[in-house]
Amino acid sequence: MRFVSIKVLALFVISLLIASCGYKTSENINKQKKNVLFIAVDDLRLQAGIYGQSQMITPAIDELGNDGVVFNRAYCSVPVCGASRASLLSGLRPTSKRFVNYHTWKDKDAPDVTSIPKWFKENGYTTLSRGKIYHHSDDDLEAWSEEPYIPAAGISWRSYITEESRKIIEANKNPKNPDQVKGPPFEMADVEDNAYPDGMLTDKVIEDLNQFAKSKEPFFLGVGFWKPHLPFNAPKKYWDLYSEEDIQLADNPFMPQNAPKKAKTDWYELRGMYAGIPKEGPVSDELARQLIHGYYACVSYTDAQIGKVLKELKRLGLDKNTVVVLWGDHGWHLGEHGLWCKHCNFDKVMKAPLMFKAPGMKEGKKSNTLVEFIDIYPTLCDLAGIDMPEHLDGKSLQPVLNNPSKIHKDTVFTRYHSGESVITKRYVYTEWKKKNGNKVNMLYDHSNDPDENINVADNPKYEEVVKELSLKINKNHD
Q: How confident is the model at residue 434 (pLDDT cuts 50, 70, 90)?
């Protein structure tokens, strides 16, 4: 009888140990899973201090870059938000029929492909969408653990809140389309940060971080800031950071020499959607300075929100186990080549910010290797320690994060409608094919023309370069 009691007792102790070990193992697995803070910024060009620019005030982005690895030559797949985001989030290259324009839906163009957040969700993460992650907030809904959060303020998605803006909207009402909102291209209200959506978004994200600090669950937190997207609406204190007379205008407000007509855009996003913009021709220098001032103010506004989020991440101790990636969905023109907005195949809009910070990763490093946004998906899998899905077109950046001088790719691709571009260390080449089989093209030699002011595609000196790069585009063609 005594033997049985000892045996039962031993079995009981063993079962307790097994249960205890099982609990600890599960807890350790969760601890080993690195969280992901996935920060997207709309229309952000390479003009933060970390990129060597002195015109904009961006302490939070600069600090993040100094704590991680910054990529100086990262290229979006398509220089327009809907297509760029769908491509990045799915890990797929665009084609002539997939991820084409701003109205792109991932669910329509690649419905059977598992996106980054969906993959992390399937790997045991709580996934949250806050702000603008996809262009459409109800795209890829199965990827998220709860309904996406979209803050709203003021009039329409443009979030006008001043009486002056309201009057301009009323004065520009279209009788044929009374629901159309055509307001000013910028607004400066003397309000707190959370009077506008990006400040409201920051408050929500800070709440989320505090909840995750309590729950200890692994998370993928998507945080998408709208600004500096038009209209350039930001609290007055961010406008006050800059003096308009100090604003520098683009020093090449003209189309490149020999550039084809296909290269030019009418920047309808600004010209056609906002009041006070000339219907044709350039904007005045005075208006150009106001627009650039507004863009800078909005970047500093978003930078401040990013700073608040990163500060809270650190205060909660979550930074010790969180991968942070910051990216802009594409660049933006501020009068270069006489252009505004994106929607073209010039380097300033195809290239956009990208930086990573992760526990144990190198700090304060910059990489000049060529990178594509489709490389973000496999990189996050590597950094988080989870397997990759098989469909990915990109290539993990982890070797570069360990050694920023390493060459990642010698060629990257981007496209906008029928314009297909290939970028190498030295050249940016674009061609548009016509239905009759002919083509128009442009080639810029960044070794002596980094601002792309002279199209040398027809220069006999570059004949072999054009042939080689055209062949690369054809090989990459769908």
A: confident
